[in-house]
Amino acid sequence: MTGKFVLWISALVFISYGLISLFSPAIPAGYAGLIISNGDAYAEISSMYGGLQTGIGVFCLIAATRVQYYESGLLVLVIGIGSITAARFIGFLGSPEPVTFYTYGAIGYELLTTVAATIALRIARKTQS
C-alpha cells in the first residue's frame, strides 16, 4: 500500500511539473534562478525538466497500475530521485551563495520520496521471500 501511494503521488507530481516545464520552461527556470539565454537553453530546460520528469511520472503511473513494474518503479525512485537528492545536497553544501526555499523544498520532497520508496521496496521484497 505504501509503495502504490508513493508511485501514484510521484506520478502526479512528476507528470504535472514535467508538462508545465515542457510547455513553459521559463517557470522552472524562474523557480531555480536560471536564465534561459538562447534556444539551446530553452530546449535543455524543456527536455530535462519537461521530458525527463514527464517520462519518470509516466513510468511511476505504469508501475502503480501493473504489478510486473511495481518494484522497478520503486527502484527508479530510490536510485534516480536518491541520486538527485544527494547531488542537490552536495551542490547546496558547496554553494558560495545562499539557497532559497526552492532548494530546501526540493531536498525535502526528494528525500521523503526516496525514503518512502526505499521502505516500500524493502517491504515488497520481504513479502516475496
Summary, kept brief:
This protein has one domain (2-128). Helices cover 84% and strands 0% of the residues.
In words, what does this structure look like?
The radius of gyration is 16 Å and the shape is globular. It has helices at residues 2-23, 26-32, 39-65, 70-94, 101-128. It contains 5 helices and no strands. The protein is mainly alpha-helical.
Q: Which key features would you list for this structure?
A:
single chain; mainly alpha
Taking pLDDT < 50 over at least 5 consecutive residues as the criterion, the unreliable ranges are none
Give the tally of β-strands: 0
- Specify the helix fraction band: over 70%
Q: How are helices and strands ordered from N to C?
A: HHHHH
What's the layout of helices and strands?
Blueprint: H1 2-23, H2 26-32, H3 39-65, H4 70-94, H5 101-128
